[in-house]
Every structure is written in C-alpha cells, then in structure tokens.
Amino acid sequence: MIKAIGFLTMFLLCQVSYTQTDAKFYGIKSHYGFIIAHTPDLEPISKTNPFGFQIEMSKLRTSDKAWKTCFCYGRSGFSFAYFNFNNPDVLGNSYNLNYFVEPYFTYKGPLKLSLRGTVGVSYLDTIFDEETNPDNVLFSTNLSFYLSLSLNLNYHINNKYAINLSANYNHISNGGQKQPNKGMNFPTLSLGIDRIIDYSPLQQKPDSLKQYSKSWGYYLGTFASLRSSDREAEASNHLLIGISAGTLKPLSGINGFNLGTELWYDWSDRKQIERQNLNDSSFSSAITAGHHFSIGDFYFLQQFGFYLTRPKNIQSNWMYQRYSFWYRIHKRWTIGASLIAYGRRADHMDGRLIYILK
C-alpha cells in the first residue's frame, strides 16, 4: 500500500507531456482538523483531531464556453482523500473518491483566491454496530456521501509549481438512508503543492460574455430519495418521491430570489403510520421561498419550506430549510441534489431532475 501511494505521488509530481492547451494540475496535500459536536451526545466521540492526505488531478478551463459556465476561470477534476479520525476503535478511517469544481475569484499575478466545491463517495471501515460499536452514532453504512467546501489560497512559484493553503469544511453522512446517521462535520486545514503542465498567464475575457437574462424563469421537477422507516434505529429503506414547481427571478448577474411549491409521498412515513397505528397521511406538501446564486450553468439555492400538509404525529416541525445544488446539463434540462434540514439537524438528501422554462 505504501509503495503504491509513493509511486502514484511521484507520478503526479513528475514531468508529463500533453498536447492540449489547457493547463493540467497534479497535486498532493495534507489535512489536519477537528470534529464538530453538533449535538450534545456527540461530545464523547468528537474530542479527536482527524488527519489525512489527498492526491488529485485537474484541468484549468480557459475556453469562452467554459468561462461562461461560472463567468470566471476555474478548475475541475478528481481527487482521492484519506482521513484517519484518530479513534480507530469507534470511528476508524474514511476513503473518499471525489469530483470537484474550483472557480477563481482572482487570476492575475502569482497569488490566486478560489473556492472549491467537492462531492463524492466515502467508504468507512468502522461503522455502528449495536453490540460491538454502539458509540458510533455518526456512521451506520460503509458507503456514504462526502461533501466539502474549501477556500483556497494558491501561490504560483513559477509556471511549473504552485503551493496552496486551504480551509476546508467536510461532511460525511449517508443522507438518511439508514440510522443512526448523525453525520460528521469536520473542518480541516490543508497544505499542498501542485505540479503544473502547460500553464500560461490568464487573460481578461470580453464584457460581452457576461450578459444574462433579467426575465422570470419557471421550473418543473421531480425528486426521489431512500429513507429509513425508523429514525432512531436500524431499519429497511423506503422510497420517497415528489414533484416541485416554482419561479426564479434574477436580481443581478449572480443573485436572485425564488418561490415554489413541492409535494411528496414518503413510504417510510407510511411504514411508521402502519406500525404505530396513527391517524396520519404519508403525503407532505409545502411552499418554498429563498435566495439563489446563478453562475453560468450552476444554481445554488437556499430555501425555507413551510408545510401545508404533513404527518403531524411523525413530523412536529412546521418549517424546514432546503439547500440545493443544480447543474444545467443541456439547454433547459438540469440535474441536482438537495438536503432538507430542521435547524442544525440534517434530515435527508435527494436527487433531482429539473426542466427550466424561460
């Protein structure tokens, strides 16, 4: 294992020849951080300092088409990240295969500021077991989701090497597919180095590429998820499926507000209703309102949802937050994911398919 990592690291940092004009980055970085105890019962297992390393490869997109995706220069690529949670008996380790996008806020001169969003799959080698590992209420499935947001300072020593310092906010959970699933939030600080191939200074793009529509937009969508039928214990998964519709109003080149409605049916709620003999419906409906960033083909939405109907004996909250990420894949078709939360407690994630009308 050590020999394989060493070989891969040497490969990423060595000189390689390519014919493409976009610059390629091959990097390695170290991580060190801490675990946030977002509920009081997590205090005993959160007093450790995770550490790890990351190897990655990415490409700096410089074409006009790529620039219009976020009205900025940016990188995108793949990474592998390993984290040791410094508590081998309870929390173990995670192995994460990820995809990331990293738009640049600044690009002139050797110092560049960027923001990276990462999504991936995490393999956890130590999970909850009622008999052998009851303390690990963070993870209950070996396969989970990995999400990260990073603020990066990149300093180009020359056209071949750059060093970077990053503040990262990392999250791992199974999206509510199995309980217990408190999920782990663990900020880290990372230091790394990149080997760069075919880099040339970035040039300012013409203002004509920054044009955007000021008219109202409308969307229709569907979403689905898998949820545990018991929120406090291990149980089988059941389908949640729903539809949504709404409007998007630009206020500037990147900011806007949105209004909408959504309706879903949750078979995990139906299972609870049948088991507890409750007088409730498994249908939920709500109206939503919020803010969104629209950057080229990307949408980042933050919404409040207000229930119109819900199974009140199961769901006591009348309001929720929804955080969504959409990406336009072809003209009006958009794919995405969203997380629904109640205060500081994340409830579940879903996948989305959206059609945007103009």
Question: Gist?
Answer:
The protein is mainly beta. The chain contains three helices and 16 strands.
Descriptive notes:
This protein has 358 residues and is mainly β. The protein contains 3 helices and 16 strands. It has an 8-stranded antiparallel barrel. Strands 9-10-11-12-13-14-15-16 form an 8-stranded antiparallel beta barrel. Strand 14 (319-330) and strand 15 form a beta hairpin. The longest helix has 12 residues, at 2-13. The protein is flat. Mean pLDDT is 86; it is low at 1-20.
The gyration radius over C-alpha positions equals: 22 Å
Estimated helix fraction: under 10%
Shape: flat
Tally of helical segments: 3
Mean pLDDT: 86
Give the class from helix and strand content and strand pairing.
mainly beta
CATH topology of the largest domain: Porin
Order of strands, widest sheet: 1-2-3-4-5-6-7-8
Distance between the termini: 53 Å
**How many extended strands?**
16
Organism: Aquimarina algicola
Keywords: Hydrolase
InterPro entries: Lipid-A_deacylase-rel
Pfam families: PagL
